[in-house]
Specification:
Rossmann fold; 5-stranded parallel sheet; 6 helices; 47% helix
Length: 176
Amino acid sequence: MYNRILAVTDGSDHAQKALVAAGQMAVRFQSEVTVLNVFSTADVDEATLHMADVEHLVAGGEPTPADPAMATASPLGTDTSYEAKKDGFMYRTAEEISHRIVDEGAAVVSKAGASQVVPVVRQGDPAEEILEVARDEKADLIVLGSRGLGTLKGLLMGSVSSKVNQHSHCDCLIVK
């Protein structure tokens, strides 16, 4: 019935349960599972950047404004080289965390019994990226948690799972 399952994870408890369900369904239907994590640099706060630097999560480390190699001031009086390097560090940090989340998710799905598991990382709006990957991968089923690691903004604007369920071309399983 389901040949291609898209399992979405953000590392939350609900997502972990969804991954297990996706793995179990993959065994039952002998399905291929794509495990997806969508990241945004907006989700990377100062504490996360500091942790990434201390843990050497990203090569090169976090840039500092005192770094003489970044002493390029713009006419507006801001250090554009520093800002660009910090933006790059934020992107690489978010991307590395996303890869770790999706790799852990793929391991959960495999442990649940799925034999064909493909990890995918995307950047952007979670609902839009989930729907796009589902179309691209020709998913028959999207499996995701009912609540993730979203912010207050997510509560006010509607959950990712609600948006995906409303706009999906295929079946959705939302796990609590």
